[in-house]
Amino acid sequence: MISISLCVIVKNEEEVLAGCLDSVKDIADEIVIVDTGSLDQTKEIASRYTDKIYDFEWIDHFAAARNFAFSKAEMEYILWLDADDIFLEEDRRKLIELKASLSKDVDAVSMYYHVGFDARGEVNFKYRRNRLVKRDIGFRWIGAVHEYLEVYGNIMETDIAVTHRKSDKKHSPSSDRNLNIYEKMAENSETMTPRDLFYFANELKDHGQYQRAITYYHHFLSTKQCWIEDEIRTCQYLSDCYKAVGHEEAALTSLLKAFLIDCPRPEFCCRLGDYFTEKQQYPQGAFWYELALSAKSNDTSFTQVEFSTWYPHLQLCVCHWQLGDREKAKYHNDKAASYNPSHPSVLYNQGVLGG
């Protein structure tokens, strides 16, 4: 059986930290908490679980804080979480089994990250992250913001999931934190990696600065050093930005560029379906929604489940209703209901079409 150090960096996490640590306290052999300046009860809560609590002066650099936490670990493998992450009971069981059976030839273990949920609590957005790594290899975190753990060697993929549970805080200064870090880098003419350019553009988009976001997305693409998943997401986000500033043709062109990078993915097929449906071009819209249902998501990609399940069926209901085919419309609404029975549009359609 392997031994595990849990590493968590924290700041003002009193609302969520206990839930995180409770979900893994009997699995980790040691818990390392690195505090970057909490002003609430975070450190007092952490002290109920471990005496390995360290202060780290915040220097606007997440990788520096995570690498410091890793330096304090002493077990064979390091497991990392954020304070608002937990293992649900089924995933706890799987992690316990993994701990008992993992070969020490494995250098890193990949797990799902469940970060988005629908109104019923079902996962609708997930992707993979390397969560458990062999300590003595010395894997390092890279990046001031949206940092990543650079791993290599024998990497094992599992179906264990870490579930992200956001705090109920009404507002957090972290909502502007990442953008401010990138703005400071830009003001100081610091060199930005392609990854920095991509995430800076994301922050600008999320803050409604669409024209600047477009500029930085194009800077990112021009580096020709893009991870395929980020390049594909850039096509989607550029489309959103162009649409927001009223450049409809550029928005469509950005979506279509994704098909030059990889096979059609459900979310892009649905977006093209939406484009034609909004123009009342229902046969073309139906084509793309049907393709979304047959397109395959890459297991290593960012997966938005609704675009291959209830959403294209719901939109196909609309298309076939407008095309005068009530039977097909009902069929697709029934299929949408099998995935998302409480969605308001599904319920409305049932009233029109019959349950």
How would you describe the overall organization of this protein?
Helix 2 links the parallel strand 2 and strand 3 (53-55). This protein folds into 2 domains: 4-164, Spore Coat Polysaccharide Biosynthesis Protein SpsA, Chain A (Alpha-Beta Complex), CATH 3.90.550; 174-353, Tetratricopeptide repeat domain (Serine Threonine Protein Phosphatase 5, Tetratricopeptide repeat, Alpha Horseshoe). Helices cover 46% and strands 17% of the residues. Strands 1, 2, 3, 4, 5, 6, 7, 10 and 11 form a 9-stranded mixed β-sheet that branches. It has a two-stranded antiparallel ribbon with strand order 8-9. The protein is globular, with a radius of gyration of 23 Å. It has helices at residues 17-22, 42-46, 62-71, 89-101, 174-187, 194-206, 210-222, 228-244, 248-257, 266-278, 282-294, 310-322, 326-339, 344-353, and strands spanning 4-10, 30-35, 53-55, 77-80, 85-86, 108-117, 123-134, 140-142, 148-150, 155-164, 303-304. The relative contact order is 0.08. The longest helix has 17 residues, at 228-244. This is Glycosyl transferase. InterPro entries: Glyco_trans_2-like, Nucleotide-diphossugar_trans, TPR-like_helical_dom_sf. GO terms for molecular function: transferase activity. It comes from Bacillus nakamurai.
